[in-house]
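Notebook entry, structure prediction.
Reason for the run: the old model in the group folder had no record of what sequence produced it. Starting over properly, with the input documented here first.
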Amino acid sequence: MSTDAIDPNTLMTPTEVGVILGCSKWTVHSYCHTGKLGARRVGNRWKISGAHVLAFLTGTDNQPSASAS
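New structure, fully documented this time:
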């Protein structure tokens, strides 16, 4: 998938991100839990912004801060 197709403002589930990254949703859960991939907990679920996915794919460390809303 091209990074142009990822909207930085979209919130995605670990399953959706797993499809993009080519890994399982459990791997994405692990990335979120360890901080390798920026994410937020909403209730008991992980939500990952498109901006965090793009930063992960491009290897940049300028991920949006967790305090930005």
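Summary: The chain has a mean pLDDT of 87.
The old model has been moved to the deprecated folder.
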